[in-house]
């Protein structure tokens, strides 16, 4: 099991964005702009789909990593934090939990 989290990666991406001296791949994406980042994300997502359809487990892990990385870069480029996305996921979980409770109440 790894201690590495998406939060860690998002923080690294944010620091690359702010580092004007950086010539890293991440910085080059920010310099190229949101349309370029969105295009890269789309390409990686399609490659992930292909790996999943091929049943190629190792390729799926690699492409999923590329997709998550580019998703985080895209969110950062639009000043959306991972926390905001997680909050939305949490809200949906709570909502579906409430709906489940309500349906148990109605049936029980
Ligand atoms: N997780 C990643 C990560 N996943 C994928 N990639 C890069 O994404 C690119 C996608 O590969 P492609 O073959 O599709 O694209 P390419 O041919 O390199 O580029 P294009 O001309 O097609 O755009 C590769 O250059 C990968 O290195 C990543 N680059 C960086 N990270 C993380 O970001 C951190 C900072 O990286 P740097 O910005 O490189 O310092 C690293 O420590 C990693 O944790």
UniProtKB/TrEMBL annotation:
EC number per UniProt: 3.6.1.31
Catalyzed chemical reaction(s): 1-(5-phospho-beta-D-ribosyl)-ATP + H2O = 1-(5-phospho-beta-D-ribosyl)-5'-AMP + diphosphate + H(+)
Key words of the record: Amino-acid biosynthesis, ATP-binding, Cytoplasm, Histidine biosynthesis, Hydrolase, Nucleotide-binding
Compartments it resides in: Cytoplasm
Pfam families reported in the protein's UniProt record: PRA-PH
NCBIfam families assigned to the protein according to its UniProt record, in alphabetical order: histidine_hisI, PRK00400.1-3, PRK00400.1-5
Protein name, per record: Phosphoribosyl-ATP pyrophosphatase
Species of origin: Methylocystis borbori
Encoding gene (name): hisE
């Amino acid at each position: 099991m790894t201690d590495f989290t998406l939060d860690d990666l998002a923080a690294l991406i944010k620091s690359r964005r702010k580092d004007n001296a950086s010539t890293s791949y991440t910085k080059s994406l920010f310099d190229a702009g949101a349309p370029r980042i969105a295009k890269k994300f789309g390409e990686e997502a399609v490659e992930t789909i292909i790996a999943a359809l091929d049943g190629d487990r190792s390729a799926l892990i690699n492409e999923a990593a590329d997709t998550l990385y580019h998703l985080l870069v895209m969110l950062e480029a639009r000043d959306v934090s991972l926390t905001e996305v997680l909050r939305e996921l949490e809200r949906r979980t709570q909502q579906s939990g409430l709906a489940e409770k309500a349906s148990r109440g109605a049936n029980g």
